[in-house]
Automatic annotation (TrEMBL):
The keyword Transmembrane helix applies. Keywords: Amino-acid transport, Auxin signaling pathway, Membrane, Symport, Transmembrane, Transmembrane helix, Transport. The chain crosses the membrane at residues 60-85, 125-151, 163-180, 186-208, 266-289, 309-333, 361-378, 384-404, 416-438. GO terms for biological process: amino acid transport; auxin-activated signaling pathway. Belongs to the amino acid/polyamine transporter 2 family. Amino acid/auxin permease (AAAP) (TC 2.A.18.1) subfamily. One of its GO terms (cellular component) is endomembrane system. Its main location: membrane. It is a multi-pass membrane protein. This is Amino acid transporter transmembrane domain-containing protein. It comes from Malus domestica. Signal peptide: none annotated.
């Protein structure tokens, strides 16, 4: 096979004369984080990484907080994450001007905070959060398949782990897409699908709320004072996780340079979808079911084992959910793919040479198989992900962007932006501790249902 010359790190034309020379890209950056996309493509990637079927848990979060607290937390999380992701983008743009185009979260941590932060904290944390998301999405895909099966065959005997394995074949194929950029058309479809299933969830809630089968609605927060207190922190963790991405630098890396201003446009695309879907699902679901809202609003659509909506409507909603979660799974495989390419691919050879295709095929397939196996073994993985979310999503999306900005731009300690960033980071740090305690408590409460390959 012929060889190709390694690409040089792209930098803006107006680079500082004192900046270091451009670096040769490693195989992970060159092949997976291929910088060829437009701001619109970036918007598709962002939307898929954030807007996922986990938003169907928002009515349950509102049930733990009530109308006022729930809507305030929902709006604050949107504002803070939009602000946070813009800060990350500004830091990345600034580093590009200096000749340090950072393509990964761990690159940012290494260059801004020091090599130890990237290698021992941010890198491993992001890897396990993203791979955990792959396992969780695989589990959710299997649950959607089982739901569709039981709607069609109420007395069916197939088990959850069988559906998880069936679903796992989809990311097994899609994982072979060579680069993040190559997912742009899939993620456009994903954007449309998330609008579709959230519209179905909203319409279903409104229909049930106005029907003769409408449940009795109460909007008081249930439980003892202790349960309500822990419920508040659980709800905040749920809302924070629904807005989390954890791969903003990797998504920005898919932009063709120069990147200035493009990420803001992409975030506007993403957050227009977020505002449309999050608030419609949360408000309609909580309005329809009150404090009886379950972990996912689709569970409320079944009533006491009897569908409250036409079977075709439930099937359609779950098919939309199933297809969209497939795209989310593949997006969160990208950090794993990038690590594999960096370690085992040869950047001096063509991306589609035998030397690079064979290890890519083997390692990506093994990655999906292992995630599918964990999902089948641990159908209670959602509880574990809540703990991971407290330790991972909040630091990556709410704390580190504030620190990166303050360290990079060094705003005056008397300035508003310094204190806004410091306050957000401080409050988020407290939420890490409290959220972790609440998550561990929930794991203990649910421990009686924990068994390998449980048919939940």
């Amino acid at each position: 096979m012929g060889t190709v010359a390694p690409n040089l790190m792209e930098v803006s034309a107006g680079r500082d004369a004192r900046s270091p020379p451009a670096k040769v890209l490693d195989a992970g950056a060159l092949f997976v984080l291929k910088s060829q996309g437009s701001w619109l493509h970036c918007g598709y990637h962002l939307t898929t990484s954030i807007v996922a079927p986990v938003i169907l848990t928002l009515p349950f979060a509102l049930a733990l907080l009530g109308w006022v607290g729930g809507l305030i937390c929902l709006a604050l999380a949107a504002l803070v994450t939009f602000y946070s992701y813009n800060l990350l983008s500004l830091v990345l743009e600034h580093q590009e001007k200096l000749g340090h185009r950072q393509l990964r979260f761990r690159d940012m941590a290494r260059d801004i905070l020091g090599p130890g932060w990237g290698k021992y904290f941010v890198g491993p944390l992001q890897f396990w959060i993203c791979y955990g998301a792959v396992i969780a999405c695989t589990l959710l895909g299997g649950q959607s398949l089982k739901f569709i099966y039981l709607l069609s065959y109420p007395d069916g005997t197939m088990k959850l782990h069988q559906f998880i394995i069936i679903f796992g074949t989809v990311p097994l194929v899609l994982a072979q897409m060579p680069s993040f950029h190559s997912l742009r058309h899939i993620n456009l479809v994903s954007l449309i699908l998330c609008l579709a299933f959230s519209t179905c969830a909203t319409a279903g809630s409104i229909y049930i709320g106005h029907s003769d089968n409408a449940p009795r609605r109460e909007y008081t927060v249930k439980g003892s004072a202790k349960d309500r207190s822990f419920g508040i922190f659980n709800a905040i963790s749920i809302i924070a996780t629904t807005y989390a991405s954890g791969i903003i630098p990797e998504i920005q890396a898919t932009l063709a340079p120069p990147v200035k201003g493009k990420m803001f446009k992409a975030l506007c695309v993403c957050y227009s979808v977020i505002v449309t879907t999050y608030f419609s699902v949360a408000i309609s679901g909580y309005w329809a079911f009150g404090n009886q809202a379950m972990g996912t609003v689709l569970s409320n659509f079944m009533g006491d084992g009897k569908p409250l909506l036409p079977t075709w409507f439930l099937l359609m909603t779950n098919v939309f959910t199933l297809l969209q979660v497939s795209a989310v799974t593949v997006v969160y495989l990208q950090p794993t793919n990038e690590v594999f390419e960096k370690k085992f691919a040869d950047p001096k050879k063509d991306q589609f040479s035998v030397r690079n295709v064979v290890p890519r095929l083997i390692l990506r397939s093994l990655s999906v198989i292992v995630a599918t196996t964990f999902a089948a073994m641990l159908p209670f993985f959602g509880d574990i992900m809540a703990l991971f979310g407290a330790f991972g999503c909040i630091p990556l999306d709410f704390i580190l962007p504030m620190i990166f900005y303050n360290v990079t731009f060094k705003p005056s300690k008397r300035s508003l932006i310094f204190w806004v960033n410091t306050s957000i980071a401080g409050v988020s740090f407290l939420l890490v501790g409290v959220g972790a305690v609440a998550s561990v408590r929930q794991i203990v409460l649910d421990a009686k249902t924990y068994r390998l390959f449980a048919n939940m």
